[in-house]
Amino acid sequence: MTRSRQFSAFIVTAAIAMVLATTTTVECFSMHMSAAGKTAVVAGATGYIGKWVVQEANRQGYNTIALVRDKSKVESKQGQAQFGKYFEGAEVVECDVCDPEQLTKTMKEIAEKNGSVDGLISCLASRSGIKKDAFAIDYQATKNFLDAGIEVKAKHFVLLSAFCVKNPWLQFQKAKLKFEADLQNQNELSWTSCRPTAFMKSLSGQYDVIIQGAPFVMFGDGEVTRCNPIAESELAQYLVDSITDESRKNKIINLGGPDEPLTMKKQGEMLFKAVGKEPNFFYAPLWLFDVIIDSLQWVADTFQSEKFENAAELGRIGKYYAVEDMLTTDPSEKFGKITLQDHYNRIAVEGQEYDPYTTMFAKAPASE
């Protein structure tokens, strides 16, 4: 190729690159402009998905309000390390969502300050999943948030629900379904309920022990259940986009990631591949769940013990995820481009953030 042709090829390549970059910039600018001047309020902002939603809403240009129970914990040194990059650009407002009067007062102040509330996104979820916590948070606190939104004439309510409510035999699933029923039965504001299959981090909980040489633990033969998890960043994008997406209004939507069905054994193989180790599995029999659950429930019933009742419920939660698919195969219910292997490959290089509710078997890092 002559120098002139090389130069021409360079010019053409550069021009194409400029067009693509300009197109991307215009799209991003348009996205930000569409949300400019609009307000989004996120409840459960310090939760695992909540902080991603705060970051995404702010990225899209919303006046983003992050509701937190204790503002001092967010502003502390440890809180800044945990939430700083997610909450940057957002307004952090202290409010107890379990207190309906305080929540309504806070929402009125937000609406008065910003002119209106365009989107409410609830990422509220009980930490334990036991009956008392589930109905206090997954139902009542979420209902308080909805009622406060109705009071200030908010425009749209987005609920982070869960795919597993499709077959409910756990208390937190029943609480979520009870709220979904209330959401559908009100006519004051439009809504979207999103039921994600699984978070990717919930499937990398054994990462920390795998790199230390421990086996990957799975139940049965590792082929009992399948799933297609969705990346946290892409789930957050879907939730925030739902504020204005007319096609999602007043709908319950199952949502999974781009992967084909992945068994637990396949997940383990992918994780070992990412960290460069030979697969090493430990197979735990499923009947262990029944023995443990039945024993705990017998003690709970015999001695009327709430403590053992809660322990039995935790056992049922563990069994549920060991035997139930978290999978959607409908192309319309799959979203995003990040695969589970992408996620594993990334944490193999960067490590993963510790979270006591998604990082199994690992210990919290020593506080500085």
TrEMBL record:
Which coarse location class applies to the principal site listed for this UniProt protein? Answer: plastid
The cellular location(s) given in this protein's UniProt record come to: Plastid, Chloroplast
Which segments constitute the NAD(P)-binding domain? 44-245
Please verify whether the record's keywords include GTP-binding.
no
What protein name is recorded for this chain? NmrA family protein
Q: Which pathway does UniProt place it in? A: Porphyrin-containing compound metabolism; chlorophyll biosynthesis
- InterPro entries on file: DVR-like (IPR044201), NAD(P)-bd_dom (IPR016040)
Give me the Gene Ontology terms describing cellular component: chloroplast
Question: So which residues are the signal peptide here?
Answer: 1-21
- Molecular function as annotated in GO: oxidoreductase activity
Taxonomically, the superkingdom here is Eukaryota
